[in-house]
From TrEMBL:
Residues 1-38 form the signal peptide. InterPro entries: DUF6230. The keyword Signal applies. This is Cholesterol esterase. It comes from Streptomyces beijiangensis.
Length: 210
């Protein structure tokens, strides 16, 4: 079974149960699982933006979580995220940007990283994306929506140190194809992450990928 959707969502109301919206919001439409810890490290006080022309993933699962870390003043902070896991993935024309504001004597500075823009895409295995916002066109193959998190088996295993409500909401698919991707994320974790044609630049001012 294949399912194609176009969707975008924001996670500021993550305490709400949004099961009816899952099919419409595609790869990011998941209710938050209570008590989840998304990352095995403390996230920084800066989110980052990513665009890709195409992401093809095999062995997909998704569930809700919370990334804990700090804000830019060093205070404790928490961020609701949808955790997307892929056993393997290829990514075409990836752009990642993060803006550091109020740098002394410089103002805002943007770190821009690009890769996979030629004939060789970015490759990753055991890839996890902790996403707050996503817009994309999506096609899922053999998708299961509403699986208990403890029974999700098509994607990679949960990351070391991660805890989640075993009865929380999850979805999974044999494979997924995302195109025209725009996302805001707090963390990315991968077993391997091969960046072909890597380019990294620091630019004065705000120069985000979107």
């Amino acid at each position: 079974m294949s399912s194609q959707v176009r969707g975008g969502t924001r996670w500021k109301r993550f305490a709400l149960v949004m099961v009816p919206a899952v099919a419409a919001t595609g790869a990011i439409g998941v209710a938050m699982a209570q008590g989840a810890l998304a990352a095995s490290f403390s996230v920084s006080g800066q989110s980052f933006k990513v665009t890709t022309d195409e992401l093809r993933g095999k062995g997909f699962s998704q569930y809700g979580g919370v990334d804990t870390g700090y804000d830019l003043k060093g205070n404790k902070a928490a961020h609701a995220v949808a955790i997307s896991g892929f056993k393997s993935a290829t990514i075409k024309n990836m752009c990642q940007s993060v803006v550091t504001p109020d740098v002394p004597f410089l103002g805002s500075v943007t770190l821009v990283l690009k890769a996979g823009g030629g004939d060789t895409p970015v490759e990753a295995d055991n890839l996890y994306l902790d996403v707050e916002e996503l817009d994309a066109d999506a096609v899922f193959h053999n998708i299961d929506i509403g699986v208990a998190a403890q029974d999700a088996s098509k994607g990679p295993a949960m990351k070391p140190g991660e805890k989640a409500n075993p009865f929380g909401f999850a979805q999974q698919a044999d494979s997924v194809e995302l195109s025209h991707v725009k996302q805001k994320a707090w963390a990315t974790t991968a077993g391997t992450f091969k960046l072909s044609g890597l380019s990294m630049r620091l630019k004065s001012g705000v120069h985000e990928c979107y």
